């Protein structure tokens, strides 16, 4: 016979005065709310393989078919990917992005760029007005979970840190101070938009890390193999699990570790495989969180992309201490697919 949970409690309640019953039920209700808030999974985006982010671009005034395409940077594969749009009879341009994480992306409409944000397993709708005579986008309306983030990108316009590309890095002290100043402006703007656009907290954290590591990476890149002036290098966290989605974070880590290796062996002249083994050996000592798994995965997949299959297999054997099995399986699948070619 099936036991009814709390049967005795329910029977006792029937014999209890109404005010007390209501009080007991409220306590039970609040207890259940507390349980669910502690135990039910949060809906913030998570790092996941093989997820799809859908974008539907709809012309406000459909006319002739126009050229629409998109690009985004894939965190795990560590490369820029192009995505073509399909055009249907209703006038929509449909994109399917295979993403590993929440990601910025750029949609191009007849060459005009629109900065957007992709969230795995969600749909973003873009309604746009295109003026064929002026060849410009007249209006933009975003709908979906990432709508406020897309509006932030549009208001921000061209990223101010991109100004660093046009600044002279001949004097590293001057370059470093300019970069530090630009970052302060960017972070202040993000904080202002957080309230104005009701940006999600997880995105504010994402974008903060993206900005911080972009600046740190660009400063190291500008220095190259030169000795860094005192106080020039940024003091940023190396093993930062909150930056696991950040594209610039991994560019920074790669640049930082290569500089450490180069400073120890400035004229080693080592081959590609040896340099990658040193890189991952250093990462084993510096990275302990999920970031380690992503860094190892990116490095091995980069070898595959360069057609250095033997190096990739050696690295996989030597550095297969990957905690998250999804990364291990992903690398194994990529290597197995290359063997079958």
Number of helices: 10
Number of DSSP strand runs: 9
Spatial ordering of strands, largest sheet: 4-5-1-8-9
**What is the makeup of the main sheet?**
5 strands, mixed
Task: Tell me the fraction of residues in β-strands, as a range.
Answer: 15-25%
Q: Residue-averaged pLDDT, rounded?
A: 83
**Could you say which overall geometry the principal axes of the C-alpha atoms support?**
globular
Indicate the percent of residues in helices.
40-55%
Low-confidence stretches: 1-14, 21-43
Radius of gyration: 25 Å
What structural class do you assign from the helix and strand content? alpha+beta
Order of helix and strand elements from N to C terminus: HHEEEEEEEEEHHHHHHHH
Amino-to-carboxy terminus distance:
60 Å
What does this molecule look like?
By secondary structure, this protein is α+β, with helices and mostly antiparallel strands. Helix content is 48%, strand content 18%. The protein contains 10 helices and 9 strands. The protein has helices at 7-14, 18-39, 147-156, 172-196, 201-223, 247-264, 272-286, 290-305, 309-318, 325-339, and strands at residues 51-59, 68-74, 79-84, 86-87, 93-99, 103-109, 112-118, 122-131, 136-143. The strands form 2 sheets. A 5-stranded mixed β-sheet has the order 4-5-1-8-9, covered by helices on one side. A 4-stranded antiparallel β-sheet has the order 3-2-6-7. Strand 4 (86-87) and strand 5 (93-99) form a beta hairpin. Helix 4 runs antiparallel to helix 5 (201-223), helix 8 packs parallel to helix 10 and helix 9 packs antiparallel against helix 10. The longest helix has 25 residues, at 172-196. It is globular, with a radius of gyration of 25 Å. 28% of the residues are buried.
């Amino acid at each position: 016979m099936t036991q009814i949970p709390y049967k005795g409690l329910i029977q006792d309640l029937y014999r209890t005065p109404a005010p007390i019953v209501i009080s007991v039920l409220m306590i039970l209700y609040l207890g259940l709310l507390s349980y669910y808030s502690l135990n039910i999974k949060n809906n913030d985006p998570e790092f996941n393989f093989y997820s799809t982010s859908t974008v539907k671009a709809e012309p406000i005034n459909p006319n002739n078919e126009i050229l629409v395409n998109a690009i985004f940077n894939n965190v795990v594969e560590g490369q820029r990917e192009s995505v073509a749009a399909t055009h249907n009879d209703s006038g929509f341009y449909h994109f399917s992005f295979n993403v590993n994480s929440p990601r910025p992306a750029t949609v191009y409409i007849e060459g005009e760029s629109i900065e957007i944000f992709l969230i795995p397993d969600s749909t973003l709708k873009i309604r746009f007005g295109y003026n064929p005579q002026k060849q410009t986008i007249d209006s933009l309306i975003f709908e979906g979970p990432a709508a406020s983030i897309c509006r932030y990108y549009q208001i921000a316009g061209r990223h101010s840190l991109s100004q660093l590309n046009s600044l002279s890095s001949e004097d590293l002290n001057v370059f470093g101070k300019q970069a530090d100043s630009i970052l302060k402006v960017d972070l202040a703007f993000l904080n202002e938009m957080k309230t104005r656009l009701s940006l999600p907290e997880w995105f504010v954290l994402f974008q903060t890390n993206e900005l911080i590591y972009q600046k740190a990476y660009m400063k190291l890149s500008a220095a190259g193999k030169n000795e860094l002036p005192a106080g020039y290098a940024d003091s940023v966290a190396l093993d930062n699990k909150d930056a696991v989605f950040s594209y610039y974070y991994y560019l920074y880590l790669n640049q930082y570790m290569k500089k450490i290796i180069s400073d120890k062996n400035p004229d080693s002249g080592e081959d590609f495989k040896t340099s990658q083994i040193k890189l991952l050996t250093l990462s084993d000592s510096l990275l302990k969180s999920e970031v380690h798994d992503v860094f190892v995965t990116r490095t091995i997949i980069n070898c595959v992309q360069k057609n250095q299959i033997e190096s990739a297999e050696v690295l996989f054997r030597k550095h297969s201490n990957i905690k998250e099995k999804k990364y291990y399986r992903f690398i194994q699948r990529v290597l197995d697919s290359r063997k079958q070619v």
